[in-house]
Amino acid sequence: MPANTVMPKWDRLPLEIWAIVIGSITVPQDFRRCWFTCRQVSRAFRKATELAFQNRVVPHVSLSCCLIFQARMPVVRPRSEGFKAVDFVVEIMMFEKYSEGGSSVVLLDKPVHDYLHPPPEGWTPPITLLDNNEVVAMEKLILEEWKVLMNSYLSAGSRGRNGPFLYYTGFSFDPPKSVQVSVNFETAEVTIPWKTLISSLMAQEMKLAEEVKLEASMDVEKSRWHTSSSPSVEQGLRIALSSKVVRVERFRTCLRAAAKNFNKKRPGAHNSCQRFVEYGLKCWYNEWATYVGIQ
């Protein structure tokens, strides 16, 4: 290389390029650590890291609540009509937008919002329920219970047994302290400083990933477990263990155990095994496979 060649410095690259580089990190645990490490390098690196998380994580975070109430839903059967008991509803508040100024994220309960402010076109009438022999809109009951739960969260400073929870990659995580959260009951919106949200979420997900890694370290393919001194039997066992069906089943078992250990350290957690394990096939399987050493 000629002596007079000037190499470009990293801080001369556009911010968007560095955000793409950081957001392209394929090892999930390394990407999570970036939030706590790369932001300490410099102001420019902090901005690039935050932009990467805004693009890759924030739009996929939601807030979930388990709302408990007793009602009956009319059900029309082929030969008769009846009622179906409704005991609880898991209500999800999805990413809607960033607040003015971009410092916070706004999560919206779309069905309840549409019930409170029906759009002029394209709105489906709410489902009706029978509550104490009175026909009411399902969204009305949801709104009432949601207000009770969120008021409890705001006054207590932390979530209750039924939420609210941060929902991400198929798991429910604890939300930030309520002093940093604002709720608009008229529009069914929840506003949270997004950097605080990501700090809380990444710290918890890193702990969950450590539990997944610990369980994966005991997997039979990882530990090179031997059951026989016979080479033919050993080869047959390896073929059986490498089957995708068998691996998926072992992954499910691993994720359930990891979630159980993770929840022991956070009383009152509300993680439905069936729900998160099935969703986790997409979000966690490759990470588990990496820990096992088969990816």
Give the SSE map.
Blueprint: H1 15-23, H2 28-37, H3 43-56, E1 62-76, E2 81-98, E3 104-108, H4 110-116, E4 128-131, E5 134-137, H5 138-156, E6 165-168, E7 171-173, E8 182-184, E9 189-193, H6 194-216, H7 220-223, H8 231-241, H9 244-264, H10 273-283, H11 285-292
Antiparallel strand pairs: 1-2, 1-6, 2-3, 3-9, 4-5, 6-7, 8-9
Helix pairs in contact: 1-3, 2-6, 6-9, 9-10
Summarize this, please?
The protein has helices spanning 15-23, 28-37, 43-56, 110-116, 138-156, 194-216, 220-223, 231-241, 244-264, 273-283, 285-292, and strands at residues 62-76, 81-98, 104-108, 128-131, 134-137, 165-168, 171-173, 182-184, 189-193. With 295 residues, it is an alpha+beta fold.
Describe this structure in words.
With 295 residues, this protein is α+β, with helices and mostly antiparallel strands. It has eleven helices and nine strands. The strands form two sheets. Strands 7-6-1-2-3-9-8 form a seven-stranded antiparallel beta sheet. Strands 4-5 form a two-stranded antiparallel ribbon. Helix 1 crosses helix 3, helix 2 packs antiparallel against helix 6 and helix 9 packs across helix 10. About 2% of the residues have low confidence.
